[in-house]
Amino acid sequence: MGKVKACLFDLDGVIVDTAKYHYIAWKELANNMGFDFTLEDNERLKGVSRMTSLDILLSIGNIEKSEEEKLALATLKNEKYLSYILKMGPEEILPGTRDFLELLKKEGIKIALGSASKNAMTILERLELTPYFEAIIDGTKVSKAKPDPEVFLKGAEALGVAPMDCVVFEDAEAGVDAALAGGMKCVGIGKEDVLGKAHLVVEGLHKMDMQKLSSLNN
User: Fold this and answer.
1) pTM assigned to the model
2) CA nearest to 127, candidates 90, 98, 97
């Protein structure tokens, strides 16, 4: 790898914690159908698409629905979720994120977002972080879910940087696999036992600095 020229960030769990809002929205949906949805159940939905998440939810409740009903339920869940994220503000940015983005800007390192979320633009605007990103690749621009590297490869392409000169920041195992499949270096945000395949694992962006980033060149 040459010098790090670009950093690509996943959104949920790296820049902001929107997972809690997804969970509340899914739980409300389950409760409305007459069954409970626990935090443990919610672990099964991590990094999974909306429709697959709904299938898991329905299987937990032992409920059968037609494709048409499923689409209506998925839409309802998204509307609930959106009502929560529209109330978000910059105070919900995870610790150290803005400082690290500032540092990258100062160093001339390009920044892109690579997220499966179709609401990524809305969230970045609510957090007042949009100006930091030169490219935003979200769920509206990709057809393949992680661990397929499509979202990160499109991000690198949009920035005009070779994959080998990119570092991806991810909190999910599927995301780490996607970064590696795309030929990129990866920093795992979270726990070593889950993200051990990443080149470096840190607790959060507040633990990142240029020295750690540069160490990925080796």
Assistant:
1) 0.86
2) 90
Other CB atoms within 10 Å distance of the CB of residue 120: 24
Q: CA-based diameter of the chain, in Å? A: 55
CATH topology of domain 19-85: DNA polymerase; domain 1 (1.10.150)
**Was 10 annotated as part of a binding site?**
yes
Residues annotated as catalytic are 10, 12
Report the alpha-carbon distance of residue 190 to residue 199 in Å, rounded. Answer: 13
Per the CB < 8 A criterion, the answer to whether 170 and 189 are in contact is: yes
Residue 145 reports pLDDT greater than 60: yes
118 assigned ligand-binding residue: yes
In the sheet where 166-170 sits, what is the strand order? 135-137, 110-114, 6-9, 166-170, 185-189, 200-202
Whether 127 shows a pLDDT value over 80: the answer reads yes
Domain ranges of the chain: 6-16+93-215, 19-85
26 labeled part of a ligand binding site: yes
Angle at 10 between CA 9 and CA 11, to 5 degrees: 110
DSSP per-residue string spanning 156-200: HHHHT--GGGEEEEESSHHHHHHHHHTT-EEEEES-HHHHTTSSE
Is pLDDT of 1 > 50? no
Superfamily of domain 6-16+93-215 in CATH is: HAD superfamily/HAD-like (3.40.50.1000)
